[in-house]
Amino acid sequence: MSATKPLVVIFGATGNQGGSVLHTLAKYPESYTVRAVTRSVKSKGAQELASKYPHVQWVEADIENPLSLPPAVARADIVFGVTQYFQPSVLLAVGTNVDAEFQQGRNIIDACVAENVGFVVFSTLPSAKKLSNGKFTEVLHLEGKYRIQEYLFAQPIASATVQLGMYYQNSIQGASWNESGDAVMINFPGNVNRKLPYADVNRDVGPYVKYIIDN
Predict the structure, then answer these.
(1) What is the dihedral of CA 115, 116, 118, 120, to 10 degrees?
(2) Can you tell me the distance from the alpha carbon of 165 to that of 167, in angstroms, rounded to the nearest whole number?
(3) By the 8 A CB rule, do 190 and 197 touch?
(4) E strands along 82-140, which residues?
(5) How does pLDDT run across 19-71, given as a tens digit for each residue?
(6) Are the CB atoms for 121 and 162 separated by under 8 Å?
(7) Residue 106's CB: how many other CB atoms inside 10 A?
(8) 213 contact partners, CB below 8 Å, separation of at least 6
């Protein structure tokens, strides 16, 4: 890691998780040099964030285009990586290429290894297949992220992962007031007595990642 301010590269900087990391680290320009990665620096989201945080560097790269990634992570001390399961290129591949999301993560990791990045923090999830002893085999947005984690830990690079619960934001989208108007109802299939892991993705991810890279 650099003796001066570490250079932190953030993938998914205009999204939920990467955006949370960006908002958190950009508050400390004296402590970090931040480079945000987006597929288009001309997008509305990137333009708004660039205006809000003028000291943040912006670069274009696509996690599905391996050739675009080494320049994005060049000279980085720390990289935050996140993949995108719920996008057409991955969803259309389900059933024909179940490795589509894993390949996104591998592309990022391979670029980090090639560019001698000091430390990688990646957003992953556990394997439903493994946790259920083989009962649930097709929770693909978990399996791809788990494979990314296993691949990351096998590389000659220092690393850590974060694993989020379900997004509160997703539940709120389907919530409604009850008839008396004194409670909000969130519909979710499953055992009503079971505790579920939730996360406020926009608020929580950044501080956790900051703690990891600071320690």
Answers:
(1) 60
(2) 6
(3) no
(4) 119-124
(5) 999 999 999 999 999 999 999 999 999 999 999 999 999 999 999 999 999 99
(6) yes
(7) 19
(8) 6, 8, 78, 119, 121
